[in-house]
Sequence to fold (575 residues):
Amino acid sequence: MNSFGSFAYCFHQGIKNIRRNKLFSIASVATMTACLFLFGIMYFILINVQYMLLEAETNVGVTVFFDEGIEDEQIANLKQRIEAMEAVRSVVYKSAAQTWEEYKETHLTDELAETFGTDNPLEDSASFSIFFESVEEQTETVAQIAMLPGIRKVNDTEDMVNTLTRLNRILSIGSVIIIGLLLCIATFLISTTVTMGVSIRRKEISIMHLIGATDIFIRAPFLVEGVIIGLLGACIPLSILYALYYKIIELIASKFSSLFSTLNFVNTSEVFQVLAPVSLCIGVGIGFLGSYFTLNKQLRNFRQL
Amino acid sequence: MSDWENVPASELQEQKIQESDPALESVSENSSRAPINPLDAPVIVLEHVSKEYDGTTENHALTDVSFSVKKGEFVFIVGPSGSGKSTMIRLMMKEISPTEGRIYVAGKDLAKLRKRQVCKYRRSIGIVFQDFRLLQDRNVYENVAFAQQVVGAPKRRIPKEVSKMLNLVGLSGKYKNRPTELSGGEQQRVALARALVNNPMILLADEPTGNLDPQNSWEIMNLLEEINRRGTTVVVVTHNREIVDRMQKRVISVQSGVIVEDKKGGYGHE
Fold:
């Protein structure tokens, strides 16, 4: 048995099947492309949201505001006590004057800022930005800080973390449903393509059976067809996603600017280290399994033993 | 003279099967039909074979059929439509299995062949049909080469084998033609070349002249006789009385699934 010759023949026949079944093959590739493109986008969002969650938990500090009329000495004392806490990495003091200056720069025009003269409308907004060693102890430490005398209010990252966690969960469930549906459609289309191929080659298959072709020799062209469709359906969206990664992320970020504007994104190579093999496995896997199970059903008619 | 012409195809194929598939050999050893004298050994044996379709006795295609065909023999199986002739061919091809009885081909009990052994078994048999069953989208050469590709023949050997077969059937000048550009007789020749290209020990022909005019029918029959002379056992299913009467070979007559006559000579029984 000349294995290479048989492989070359089956591969060639697989390509021929695709050409004969052009319309169905294109539809299958297109559906697979759409499915894996959406999968890629969902993955982009999920991985970036998770990354941002981690960033938010570790790098975004808790802001602590003081009681009205608190003395500088008391503030210095509070700073020492907070810094002494085990879970706290650093404490940064921001005076009321600094806060007002930053606010003017970011939110007010020069003309409008001048109307305030030397007044500071945020005179009670001096604060500490507290950064933690680990996320796990954050909630407990924040509760301890809130109990300290002279502390008026603690703004922690819990709300933001909760929002991102909710978004993450909704996206996960939504993406699983959408991708599941699209994968079903892609499998159905591959199955239809293979069924059409078997029907077109019915005569050829029956001759193959009679002249002693092995089962794998008869199946191989159809499996090649399914795998090529799956491979194309994976490579096309991966190329588009690779080229457009930052544009897509920026576009999504702009839609949720309140959440994403200050955060960093995962870099392309890190994303595609996972996305590329997973997409290829899904594409090739669905192509192969879709063809395999369809062939089992279709070729049963040829086995009358 | 070519290698194929020097060595009878049946011997070549028998050697090939035994070398390539020890499983088949063991089936052969276990069989009660071990040949005593290779020259007289039957290559096809049907023992009390019955076949019912759909498992009902009303659909009896064959009833208690027994006969054997010796190596190198030329046998006609004749009878009216629906008499069970084609069922015999399908049984010998192991396309279907008998409801009762045993079938031995080349010493192998077909009932004992496992699924994966069936394809190797079929390579020892060539088959031609009334409707030729050629691939319309391929030319003459490709149709014949197809049989070699299917069995995984080395690529460099295929052109040599195919041209040898096309020479034998007299179609070497039309190797580029598509089946639609050929006459019925020529198409049947292509089918014959395809059936013979893998050097089968047995050639089964199911109504090979059914779609042909008398002249083309004779050409095909002459070709089958020539193939038989070179050592291949030939079994032809037909209801063409004229051909059978003229060729004076062994004739097995079947009616309503029962063998009514088995003798050398003409068509005989009506």
About this structure: DSSP finds ten helices and ten strands in chain B. Chain B touches chain A at residues 93-97, 115-116, 118-123, 126-127, 133, 135, 146-147, 149-155, 194-195, 198 (CB under 8 Å). The mean pLDDT of chain B is 82. The radius of gyration of chain B is 18 Å.
